[in-house]
Specification:
Length: 256
């Protein structure tokens, strides 16, 4: 199953929603697209999401979910009820909504491989975008990026608290000796689609075509289970070179 912009929008877990304390949230789909926008949202706590994941989604709640929700709220997003799924694909559990209307969510695969954690995704108007393989990985990335910005404001760090600092402490980027943030993320945090795509773009800017092709091929090696974006991106890269390179000869000399 590949996730992309063409997924149908349906409600999910609807029969179990009455057992949750979802308050009086009003969720409507916009007239222009089948996409939710909250018009009246009461206060929700991490307990609502933890209960939903455990009792409705029948999964183990991530250990640092409370930490992530606090951090999302600290960066200006609005916490939304986990059952506000009208207009969403069936497999997502919404966490928060940004000013743009995008929803940071968890993805609950119905038959995930053993030991696989729920990925963090962003639900946009035209599809689902992979953010991180787990809550921990996303927290790690958020803190590293905040550190790289050099902003003195402590709101995000306070929200992360001790659980967040178990993953990343202020100054870890500098002490690593890695000057480039994207390189740090790939080496110390994990693989991210947008970071890999920027890496390919930089190879192309330097006219290092072999590295661009190798990285594009690496992108498709099942690092992001169920997502079609790596294959689309790699196909676009190959199209750039099909008139200029003998790709069959290229692949004969490159071992992946």
């Amino acid at each position: 199953m590949k996730i992309g912009a063409g997924l149908a929008c349906r409600s999910y877990f609807a029969s179990a929603l009455p057992s949750l304390n979802l308050g009086a949230a009003v969720v409507r789909c916009s007239a222009s697209a089948s996409y939710p926008s909250t018009t009246s949202v009461p206060t929700y706590t991490s307990t609502d999401h933890i209960s939903f994941i455990r009792d409705v989604a029948v999964a183990n709640p991530p250990e640092r979910l409370r930490c992530l929700l606090n951090m999302l709220q600290a960066r200006g997003e609005t916490i939304v009820p986990p059952g506000a799924k009208e207009g969403l694909i069936p497999l997502v559990i919404p966490l928060s909504e940004s000013f743009s209307g995008a929803l940071t969510s968890l993805l609950r695969w119905p038959t995930s491989p053993p030991g696989m954690e729920m990925p963090v995704v962003e639900v946009r108007k035209h599809g689902v975008w992979y953010l991180a393989k787990s809550v921990d990985q996303y927290i790690h990335r958020m803190l590293a990026e905040e550190d790289a910005r050099g902003i003195q404001e402590k709101k995000l760090w306070d929200a992360a608290a001790d659980l967040g600092r178990e993953l990343y402490n202020k100054g870890d980027l500098l002490s690593s000796g890695i000057a480039d943030l994207d390189t740090y993320l790939l080496k110390k945090v994990g693989l991210f689609p947008d970071v890999i795509e920027r890496k390919v773009a930089r190879h192309l800017q330097r006219e290092d075509h072999v590295s661009a092709l190798v990285t594009g091929e690496f992108y498709t090696r099942n690092h992001f289970l169920g997502f079609g974006r790596p294959f689309v991106f790699n196909a676009e890269i190959l199209l750039k070179f099909r008139k200029n390179l003998n790709l069959e000869t290229f692949y004969q000399h490159i071992a992946f």
